[in-house]
Specification:
The chain is an alpha/beta fold and 240 residues long. It contains eight helices and seven strands, in the order E-H-E-H-E-H-E-H-E-H-E-H-H-E-H.
Protein backbone atom coordinates (compact mmCIF):
# COMPACT_ATOMS: atom_id res chain seq x y z
CA UNK A 1 0.00 0.00 0.00
CA UNK A 2 1.39 3.41 -0.98
CA UNK A 3 1.53 6.12 1.69
CA UNK A 4 1.00 9.87 1.29
CA UNK A 5 1.50 12.70 3.77
CA UNK A 6 -0.74 15.69 3.00
CA UNK A 7 -0.32 18.91 4.96
CA UNK A 8 -3.42 21.06 5.25
CA UNK A 9 -5.63 18.05 4.66
CA UNK A 10 -8.81 19.23 6.37
CA UNK A 11 -10.23 21.47 3.62
CA UNK A 12 -9.80 22.75 0.09
CA UNK A 13 -7.44 20.99 -2.27
CA UNK A 14 -5.74 19.01 0.49
CA UNK A 15 -9.01 17.38 1.50
CA UNK A 16 -10.09 16.82 -2.11
CA UNK A 17 -6.79 15.17 -3.06
CA UNK A 18 -6.87 13.09 0.12
CA UNK A 19 -10.29 11.71 -0.77
CA UNK A 20 -9.14 10.87 -4.29
CA UNK A 21 -6.08 9.04 -2.97
CA UNK A 22 -8.24 7.26 -0.41
CA UNK A 23 -10.41 5.94 -3.25
CA UNK A 24 -7.22 4.43 -4.69
CA UNK A 25 -6.50 2.82 -1.29
CA UNK A 26 -3.48 4.93 -0.42
CA UNK A 27 -2.60 5.02 3.27
CA UNK A 28 -2.85 8.64 4.38
CA UNK A 29 -1.23 10.81 7.02
CA UNK A 30 -2.98 14.19 7.15
CA UNK A 31 -2.57 17.26 9.30
CA UNK A 32 -4.24 20.63 9.86
CA UNK A 33 -4.45 23.24 12.55
CA UNK A 34 -8.15 22.68 13.32
CA UNK A 35 -8.59 19.43 15.22
CA UNK A 36 -12.34 19.23 14.64
CA UNK A 37 -12.24 19.88 10.92
CA UNK A 38 -9.30 17.54 10.48
CA UNK A 39 -11.15 14.70 12.19
CA UNK A 40 -14.23 15.33 10.09
CA UNK A 41 -12.22 15.13 6.87
CA UNK A 42 -10.26 12.11 8.11
CA UNK A 43 -13.48 10.27 8.97
CA UNK A 44 -14.62 10.68 5.36
CA UNK A 45 -11.33 9.25 4.14
CA UNK A 46 -11.45 6.41 6.68
CA UNK A 47 -14.52 5.04 4.93
CA UNK A 48 -12.13 4.13 2.11
CA UNK A 49 -8.67 3.56 3.56
CA UNK A 50 -6.31 3.73 6.55
CA UNK A 51 -5.89 7.33 7.75
CA UNK A 52 -3.84 8.86 10.55
CA UNK A 53 -4.84 12.42 11.42
CA UNK A 54 -2.34 14.51 13.38
CA UNK A 55 -3.60 18.00 14.33
CA UNK A 56 -1.05 20.76 14.66
CA UNK A 57 0.69 23.69 13.03
CA UNK A 58 3.01 22.52 10.25
CA UNK A 59 5.47 25.30 11.13
CA UNK A 60 5.93 23.86 14.65
CA UNK A 61 9.09 21.69 14.86
CA UNK A 62 7.47 19.36 17.39
CA UNK A 63 4.55 18.79 15.03
CA UNK A 64 6.95 18.17 12.14
CA UNK A 65 8.71 15.56 14.26
CA UNK A 66 5.38 13.89 15.05
CA UNK A 67 4.58 13.65 11.33
CA UNK A 68 8.01 12.18 10.58
CA UNK A 69 7.63 9.68 13.44
CA UNK A 70 4.28 8.52 12.03
CA UNK A 71 5.82 8.05 8.58
CA UNK A 72 8.64 6.00 10.08
CA UNK A 73 6.30 3.84 12.17
CA UNK A 74 4.11 3.27 9.12
CA UNK A 75 7.00 1.89 7.13
CA UNK A 76 7.78 4.65 4.66
CA UNK A 77 6.50 7.38 2.36
CA UNK A 78 5.70 7.49 -1.35
CA UNK A 79 4.24 10.99 -1.66
CA UNK A 80 4.70 14.24 0.26
CA UNK A 81 2.13 16.93 -0.56
CA UNK A 82 3.16 20.38 0.65
CA UNK A 83 -0.33 21.86 0.58
CA UNK A 84 -0.66 23.85 3.81
CA UNK A 85 -0.37 27.55 3.01
CA UNK A 86 -0.49 30.89 4.81
CA UNK A 87 -1.89 33.86 2.88
CA UNK A 88 -0.87 36.55 5.34
CA UNK A 89 -3.02 39.43 6.62
CA UNK A 90 -6.47 39.92 5.16
CA UNK A 91 -7.28 42.24 3.48
CA UNK A 92 -4.09 41.93 1.46
CA UNK A 93 -1.73 44.87 1.78
CA UNK A 94 1.21 46.42 -0.10
CA UNK A 95 4.71 45.25 0.76
CA UNK A 96 5.37 48.61 2.41
CA UNK A 97 2.62 47.79 4.92
CA UNK A 98 3.59 44.14 5.46
CA UNK A 99 5.32 43.88 8.82
CA UNK A 100 8.34 41.74 9.58
CA UNK A 101 6.13 39.49 11.69
CA UNK A 102 3.62 39.15 8.85
CA UNK A 103 6.32 38.04 6.43
CA UNK A 104 7.92 35.67 8.92
CA UNK A 105 4.55 33.98 9.47
CA UNK A 106 4.04 33.47 5.74
CA UNK A 107 7.53 32.10 5.18
CA UNK A 108 7.35 29.83 8.23
CA UNK A 109 4.38 27.93 6.80
CA UNK A 110 5.00 28.17 3.06
CA UNK A 111 8.77 27.74 2.89
CA UNK A 112 10.41 26.73 6.15
CA UNK A 113 7.92 23.99 7.02
CA UNK A 114 8.12 22.19 3.63
CA UNK A 115 11.91 22.40 3.80
CA UNK A 116 11.95 20.96 7.31
CA UNK A 117 9.63 18.11 6.35
CA UNK A 118 11.66 17.28 3.26
CA UNK A 119 14.85 17.15 5.30
CA UNK A 120 13.32 14.68 7.73
CA UNK A 121 11.43 12.60 5.18
CA UNK A 122 13.89 12.52 2.28
CA UNK A 123 15.39 9.10 3.19
CA UNK A 124 11.93 7.52 3.00
CA UNK A 125 11.14 9.25 -0.31
CA UNK A 126 14.47 8.21 -1.82
CA UNK A 127 13.96 4.62 -0.72
CA UNK A 128 10.49 4.57 -2.36
CA UNK A 129 11.60 6.60 -5.40
CA UNK A 130 8.73 8.81 -4.33
CA UNK A 131 7.20 12.15 -5.23
CA UNK A 132 7.18 15.61 -3.66
CA UNK A 133 4.22 17.70 -4.79
CA UNK A 134 4.28 21.35 -3.69
CA UNK A 135 1.27 23.57 -4.28
CA UNK A 136 2.37 26.78 -5.93
CA UNK A 137 0.53 29.73 -7.47
CA UNK A 138 0.60 31.93 -10.54
CA UNK A 139 1.60 34.65 -8.06
CA UNK A 140 5.00 32.92 -7.87
CA UNK A 141 5.79 34.07 -11.42
CA UNK A 142 3.54 37.14 -11.75
CA UNK A 143 3.43 40.39 -9.79
CA UNK A 144 0.06 41.24 -8.26
CA UNK A 145 -0.32 44.24 -5.93
CA UNK A 146 -0.95 43.07 -2.39
CA UNK A 147 0.26 39.53 -2.98
CA UNK A 148 3.99 40.20 -2.49
CA UNK A 149 4.59 38.22 0.69
CA UNK A 150 2.59 35.19 -0.39
CA UNK A 151 4.03 35.35 -3.92
CA UNK A 152 7.61 35.49 -2.66
CA UNK A 153 6.98 32.46 -0.47
CA UNK A 154 5.59 30.45 -3.38
CA UNK A 155 8.49 31.44 -5.64
CA UNK A 156 10.85 30.24 -2.91
CA UNK A 157 8.88 27.00 -2.55
CA UNK A 158 9.15 26.43 -6.31
CA UNK A 159 12.91 26.77 -6.14
CA UNK A 160 13.26 24.54 -3.10
CA UNK A 161 11.10 21.86 -4.70
CA UNK A 162 12.83 21.80 -8.07
CA UNK A 163 16.33 22.10 -6.63
CA UNK A 164 15.45 19.12 -4.46
CA UNK A 165 14.74 17.18 -7.65
CA UNK A 166 18.01 18.29 -9.22
CA UNK A 167 19.94 17.16 -6.14
CA UNK A 168 18.09 13.87 -5.73
CA UNK A 169 17.45 12.13 -9.06
CA UNK A 170 15.97 9.14 -7.22
CA UNK A 171 12.79 11.14 -6.55
CA UNK A 172 10.42 13.25 -8.65
CA UNK A 173 9.35 16.72 -7.53
CA UNK A 174 6.62 18.97 -8.85
CA UNK A 175 5.64 22.58 -8.18
CA UNK A 176 1.98 22.77 -9.23
CA UNK A 177 -0.01 25.91 -9.96
CA UNK A 178 -3.61 24.74 -9.43
CA UNK A 179 -5.15 27.99 -10.64
CA UNK A 180 -7.78 30.04 -8.81
CA UNK A 181 -10.11 27.93 -6.69
CA UNK A 182 -13.15 28.54 -4.51
CA UNK A 183 -11.44 28.03 -1.15
CA UNK A 184 -11.49 29.74 2.21
CA UNK A 185 -8.00 31.12 1.66
CA UNK A 186 -8.97 32.59 -1.69
CA UNK A 187 -12.03 34.15 -0.07
CA UNK A 188 -9.77 35.73 2.55
CA UNK A 189 -7.81 37.31 -0.27
CA UNK A 190 -11.03 38.93 -1.50
CA UNK A 191 -13.05 39.68 1.65
CA UNK A 192 -16.65 40.55 0.96
CA UNK A 193 -16.38 39.71 -2.75
CA UNK A 194 -18.25 37.00 -4.61
CA UNK A 195 -15.78 34.31 -5.73
CA UNK A 196 -18.43 31.82 -6.87
CA UNK A 197 -17.04 32.02 -10.41
CA UNK A 198 -13.92 30.16 -9.26
CA UNK A 199 -13.98 26.37 -9.65
CA UNK A 200 -14.08 24.07 -6.64
CA UNK A 201 -10.79 22.35 -5.65
CA UNK A 202 -12.26 18.99 -6.66
CA UNK A 203 -12.08 20.07 -10.31
CA UNK A 204 -8.26 20.19 -10.12
CA UNK A 205 -7.84 16.73 -8.60
CA UNK A 206 -8.14 14.68 -11.83
CA UNK A 207 -5.13 16.52 -13.28
CA UNK A 208 -3.10 15.90 -10.12
CA UNK A 209 -4.01 12.23 -10.11
CA UNK A 210 -3.00 11.96 -13.76
CA UNK A 211 0.32 13.61 -12.90
CA UNK A 212 0.95 11.02 -10.20
CA UNK A 213 0.06 8.18 -12.56
CA UNK A 214 2.10 9.37 -15.54
CA UNK A 215 5.12 10.69 -13.56
CA UNK A 216 6.48 13.20 -16.13
CA UNK A 217 9.83 14.87 -15.51
CA UNK A 218 10.26 16.98 -12.41
CA UNK A 219 9.23 20.57 -13.02
CA UNK A 220 6.74 23.36 -12.54
CA UNK A 221 3.34 22.63 -14.08
CA UNK A 222 -0.02 24.38 -14.38
CA UNK A 223 -2.93 22.10 -13.56
CA UNK A 224 -4.90 23.59 -16.44
CA UNK A 225 -2.24 22.32 -18.86
CA UNK A 226 -1.76 18.83 -17.46
CA UNK A 227 -4.64 17.20 -19.31
CA UNK A 228 -2.98 18.30 -22.54
CA UNK A 229 0.28 16.59 -21.55
CA UNK A 230 2.22 19.82 -21.26
CA UNK A 231 5.90 20.19 -20.52
CA UNK A 232 7.08 21.96 -17.36
CA UNK A 233 6.31 25.67 -17.27
CA UNK A 234 9.30 27.96 -17.74
CA UNK A 235 9.18 30.63 -14.99
CA UNK A 236 8.52 34.13 -16.24
CA UNK A 237 11.74 36.01 -16.90
CA UNK A 238 13.87 32.88 -16.90
CA UNK A 239 15.55 33.81 -20.19
CA UNK A 240 16.72 37.16 -18.93
Amino acid sequence: MSTALITGGSAGLGRALGLALAEQRWRLVVDARSHGRLEQAADEMRLLTDVVAIPGDVSDPEHQAALAAEVESGGGLDLLVNNASELGPSPLRPLADLTDADLRGILATNVEAPHALVRQLLPFLVRARGVVLSLSSDAAVEHYPGWGGYAASKAALDHLTLTLAAENPEITAYAIDPGDMRTEMHQRAFPGEDISDRPYPETVVPELMQLLRSRPASGRYRAADLSAGSRPVEPAGASR
